[in-house]
Write a structure and sequence with these properties.
The chain is 64% helix and 4% strand. It has 920 residues and is mainly alpha-helical. The chain has a five-stranded parallel sheet with strand order 2-3-4-1-5, with helices on both faces. It has a two-stranded antiparallel sheet with strand order 6-7. Helix 35 packs antiparallel against helix 36. Keywords: DNA-binding.
Length: 920
């Protein structure tokens, strides 16, 4: 193994070997951190001496043999053969056997004389053949061997003898005699091995990862390893596979198993105290000051702590009083039993508490230790949980509250802890947060839980459809709004009541009869909730939009604001400010992802999916809705599942994936869904699915039921759900043109002038139910409004219908331009089935025109859907081929054909292909 940046030391050792060969005794002490290359340099010196004719003898001291008298000396003499001299020993017993039985207490004058004679024998052997003695880890030498070594060092000056010793920094023996003796010897050469430089680190890396990559990784590798050659080689081995694979990104350092093994080896090669100190640093993490705290946690004397920290720093494991890398900490704790870890964390908690450290730091160790019985522990755990919640760290608050709850014996405090725990776990997974709800609701009702928890309980119970249990909490919110003097608590109560009144309108009475209060509401939470309430009860206006945006500018995403931010974004969406709603929702979704709070990510993803649908982006909407269900499982959504399910049903319907939409329609629904606003979304989406799959009667039922609920709850705003459009299309499919026309006209009247998208949808329906000669004007207006609204899918549909109108009027060139633009928009919306349908308009019309040439007016009897089916039938397509081409069911094709035959008076498919058959 080539040693990097060790040329000075190598030259010094070569020189001393040369001097020893000339009869000038030499001794070198190589020091350095664990893994710095002391043993490797010792091996190089031994090999150099052998090449020069030296007799080389090596020994290694170990902690395990430190109490074995003569352990090191025995290794050295074993290679020398019989040792001359008259040591006191039984007849026939060798000198080394006698030495093995001697201890420090036996070092009387006789033993000392024997050791002196052994030194003399070694000197005589060195006069015949130069001798190199290599002693590794002399800090672990037994007392007898050390005594002999000191005697030998004093007799080096004129012998062809060299001694090369290595010693680790931490583990200096308590007896300083060796160092003292060496310092006074002129032939002593101290060789301290420094850490590698960054350039040296690159040189070690290069054979493993290549000359190009080594300089790129060197700085990071040096920061992780501290320049310890052993650790650098381990990191090179971890990174080698990545560098060798051309399909991987190699410009990064891999910290893997080899590094972990190397760290483990470093820690287990030192004193046991070194491992304890490293483990203390590992559990303290950022709490690791280089002071008595480490000694307390490691359970060592402070003097040992000082030496241990220095040794860890010399070994490249420590920098600035902290372990350099998380993998270093993990390796230190590897093999540590659960009981040992608990003890470490318990001592850390005690020490930090005594020092007045923040509760968050103390609680971390209390949780890890699994203890909380100390008188001060409960308060520390609760304070830490509250701070975590305030900082939007519910996942960190949860274990603190659970630990506090395990050790709490006061009934009242246990209820308050359960309430806090419900709030913390709610945003992680509402099912977890629901575990204590019924018990807490009972405690609130009995007066054992303060009214301040009514707001939380009402929202959580209603979410899960527990309407009976929620009734008392809802009533208390009203009383709290009127009685509480704290402005913050009062604002929260008012905002909650506003939100609940438009989310569960059948259960929570509406708040305000008029929208005047929205502009003057001061608290941003109240303004956000009031904006949503106003737009749903009274329709959109400029003040609602301004209030919603002002509320969001005054808030940041957090535990007490996230639901009011969703209210404000929803208010913009239902005011037909789709672009603004998208921009704000993207901002809050990014914030939610940055904070990694599952419920916030899920709610904003679902809301953004609804926005995407109104922008004509069904594929994006589907992906966002799927994200919402991935973050929070279906069973945890409660009645709010109506939102993401509606988005998925509608998105898949718009994309023509009716099988996927049907899968979501078939999912079981939670009890109470249709007592909430989320049930409206679901009914509307399911109605459109039924309409697209040839089930107009079922579709009509859903649209009518949706409208009945909206009227009953006084939320009948087309911008919320334009249910009349869906119902009108269902009536058209069932032949009820007059009723369809009435619904379209009513919806148009309700839209007013502010709702561009909703008004555009209404004009499309009105055109569909009107006579062909009068469809142009409403469709042109619909095209302009829908283009301005940003709903590209609806814009494409209006363009296609306007193109068909021009085609019927004989303006084929204009029609072709409009239809082509509609198809392009559909493709941009990633709805190829619609693009294909739009491009079929021109050939379908030509086929129908040819078949009905004698009396063209027969075409006017058919609805657009019936015309498409009739045209494809006239071209010779089968029902199954038509269903695939139009992306509808075979049953739908059959129903359309039945009405076509009835309206046109034909009895067979062949008659549709005969001239004049469509005259009617």
């Amino acid at each position: 193994m080539h040693l990097v940046e060790r040329d000075r030391e190598r030259t010094a050792l070569t020189d001393m070997i040369q001097r020893a060969a000339r009869g000038e005794g030499q001794v070198a002490l190589i020091t350095g951190g664990i893994g710095s290359g002391k043993t490797a340099l010792l091996a190089e010196a031994a090999e150099e001496a052998r090449r020069r004719g030296f007799d080389v003898r090596c020994a290694t001291a170990s902690l395990a043999e430190r109490q074995t008298p003569g352990a090191v000396l025995g290794q050295l003499t074993r290679g020398l053969g019989p040792v001359p001299g008259n040591l006191p020993a039984p007849a026939g017993t060798g000198a080394r056997d006698t030495l093995a039985r001697l201890g420090p207490e036996s070092l009387d004058s006789a033993v000392s004389r024997a050791l002196l004679r052994l030194c003399a024998d070694v000197e005589r052997r060195a006069r015949r053949t130069p001798l190199l003695l290599c002693l590794d880890d002399v800090q672990f030498m037994d007392e007898l061997s050390l005594h002999w070594l000191l005697l030998l060092i004093r007799r080096l000056s004129d012998a062809a003898l060299a001694l090369v010793l290595t010693e680790r920094g931490l583990s200096r023996p308590a007896d300083p005699r060796l160092r003292a003796e060496l310092r006074r010897r002129p032939e002593h050469r101290p060789l301290a091995l420094p850490a590698l430089s960054v350039d040296g680190t690159a040189a070690v890396l290069a054979p493993h990862v290549g000359d190009r990559l080594a300089p790129l990784l060197a700085a990071e590798c040096h920061a992780v390893s501290g320049g310890n050659p052993l650790l650098v080689r381990a990191l090179a081995e971890d990174s080698r596979h990545g560098a060798a694979d051309p399909g991987t990104t190699t410009e990064r350092l891999v910290v893997g198993d080899a590094f972990a093994d190397a760290v483990t080896g470093c820690l287990h090669r030192g004193w046991p105290a070194l491992l304890r100190i490293a483990r203390a640093l590992a559990v303290l993490r950022d709490d690791a000051p280089a002071d008595t705290t480490v000694a307390r946690v490691a359970d060592v004397e402070d003097t040992v702590r000082v030496r241990g920290l220095r040794a860890l720093e010399d070994a490249g494991l420590l920098a600035g009083g902290r372990l350099r890398h998380p993998a270093t900490a993990a390796a230190a704790l590897a093999g540590c039993t659960g009981q040992e870890r608990a003890a470490l964390h318990h001592r850390a908690a005690e020490r930090l508490y005594e020092q007045g450290a923040p509760a968050v730091r103390v609680a971390h160790h209390l949780v890890a230790a699994g203890t909380g019985t100390a008188p001060w522990a409960g308060d520390q755990l609760r304070e830490a949980a509250e701070r975590h919640l305030a900082a939007s760290r519910p996942a960190s608050a949860r274990p603190c509250l659970e630990a506090a709850l395990r050790h709490c014996r006061d009934d009242g405090e246990r209820l308050r802890l359960k309430a806090l725990l419900a709030g913390a776990t709610w945003v992680l997974d509402p099912t977890m947060g629901a575990r204590h709800l019924v018990e807490l609701a009972g405690a609130l009702r009995d007066g054992r839980l303060p009214d301040q928890y009514a707001v939380m309980l009402a929202k959580y119970l209603l979410w899960h459809g527990k309407y009976v249990e929620a009734a008392d909490a809802v009533e208390r919110i009203g009383r709290r709004d009127a009685a509480v003097t704290d402005p913050t608590a009062a604002a929260e109560a008012r905002a909650t009541r506003e939100l609940l009144s438009v989310t569960y309108p059948g259960l929570v009475p509406g708040g305000r009869p008029a929208p005047a209060r929205v502009a003057s509401a001061g608290d941003p939470r109240t303004r956000g909730a009031a904006a949503l309430s106003d737009v749903l009860r009274h329709g959109p206006d400029r003040r609602v939009v301004e209030s919603a945006e002002a509320a969001m500018r005054a808030m940041s995403l957090g535990r007490t604001t996230h639901e009011w931010l969703t209210c404000a974004v929803s208010a913009l969406l239902f005011a037909d400010r789709t672009a603004s709603a998208a921009s704000w929702c993207d901002h809050w979704l990014a914030e939610a992802r940055a904070r990694r709070v599952p419920l916030w990510i899920a709610e904003f993803s679902s809301l953004r999916a609804g926005v995407a649908l109104r922008q004509g982006r069904p594929r994006e909407a589907r992906e966002l809705a799927e994200t919402a269900l991935a973050r929070i499982p279906v069973e945890s959504w409660g009645v709010c599942i109506g939102g993401p399910l509606a988005n998925l049903i509608q998105a898949n319907t718009d994309l023509g994936d009716h099988e996927a939409a049907a899968g979501y329609v078939e999912m079981p629904l939670p009890q109470g869904l249709f007592d909430s606003r989320f049930g409206l979304y679901y009914l509307n989406a399911r109605g459109h699915h039924y309409l697209a799959t040839g089930q107009p009667r079922a579709a009509l039922d859903d649209f009518v039921n949706c409208g009945a609920l909206m009227r009953r709850w006084r939320l009948d705003q087309p911008s919320l759900i334009p249910w009349r459009s869906g119902a009108a299309h269902a009536h058209l499919a069932l032949g009820g043109t007059a009723r369809a026309r009435a619904l379209a006209a009513e919806q148009l009247r309700l839209t007013g002038g502010a709702l561009t998208r909703t008004r555009g949808l209404s004009l499309r329906v009105l055109a569909a139910v009107g006579p062909p000669s009068r469809r142009g004007a409403p469709l042109r207006n619909a095209v302009a409004l829908l283009e301005r609204s940003g709903d590209r899918l609806q814009h494409a549909g209006a363009l296609a219908e306007l193109g068909l109108t021009h085609l019927r009027a004989g303006r084929a060139e204009t029609a072709a331009e409009l239809v082509d633009r509609a198809a392009e928009l559909a493709e941009e919306c990633r709805a190829p089935h619609l693009a294909a349908r739009f491009r079929d308009i021109l050939p379908a019309h030509r086929a129908l025109s040819a078949a009905a040439a004698p009396r063209d007016q027969g075409l006017d009897l058919l609805s657009p859907a019936e015309r498409r089916v009739a045209s494809l039938t006239a071209q010779g397509f089968s029902n199954r081929e038509i269903s695939a081409r139009l992306d509808v069911t075979v049953s739908t094709v059959e129903q359309h054909l039945t009405r076509v035959f009835r309206k046109l008076g034909v009895r067979t498919r062949g008659e549709l292909r005969q001239p004049g058959a469509l005259a009617g």
